[in-house]
Amino acid sequence: MANYLDLTHRREIQALAASFTAKTEWPTWLLLLGVYIGWFGVLLASQWLGLWCSTLLLIPLVTLWLSLQHELLHGHPTRFPLVNKLLGYAPFAVWYPYTLYRDSHLLHHHDEDLTLPGIDPESRYLNQQQWDASSRLQRSVHWLTKTVVGRLLLAAPLAISRLVHDQWQRLPEVWPMWLAHGVVTLLMLGFITHYSVLPVWHYLLLVSVPAMSLASIRSYYEHRPHPRPEQRTVLNEASWPWRWLFLNNNLHLVHHDLPKLPWYLLPTVYRARREQWLARSGGFLVQGYGQLISRHGLKAIDSPRHPFA
Residue 93: in which H helix or E strand, if any? Predict the structure, then answer.
């Protein structure tokens, strides 16, 4: 547990961790069951629902699945990584194997490296050398992705292209992971072809890519460059639809400080010591995603160049 917490706060968190809800993890089990039933149910009922109604239901379901995979790789709902991997291995979002996401994301949790280009695998910044080597078009794209609209339109395609480039270079090392992921993905696409009205291309381009784009709103401004690592991570007081979609990961500093704390306890811990969390973040507070959209829909929120990397 984070060493900066006072004794009373530690005891409060330990009491929550000892509760029936935390010990059984029933909220996560219930959510897992709900997403699986929802995904299969929408596809099986797609002939009745229609192509576009099915699509509009599947996009948030797949986005929620990405949030659930994040919960699984952090040790929920079981203490056994292999069990959690099996629970979260379904490639509903298609492009990222669970193993790759898990290993990359856990590296991101080295808080002393947060936002540093080339070190933090989830950094959205460039160091000076990368910036100097960029073309005018590349720099324009980087600036555009610093707006909400640009992130929605470009984050997923850029992430997929980087994934292909990086993983192709590492293929001799990672081919078993991609083979396993590919087999399971083909089985899933076969199910979609035979039991739903969605063409495969439609699911790939108009379900999975938009779901990734929607998920990218959460990470749009969850970290900023700052000399102090604990002040690099946001506290976003989002409204309930976003909180559910992102499983309270909008309270991102709480998650980074207490990565083993399950999603359903994050708001309780935050509300109990809100002023302390705000002080720890250095005032890095956002009043919901609506604020980001209204202020930075078409205006860059900061520079793509890292100020001190």
Answer: none
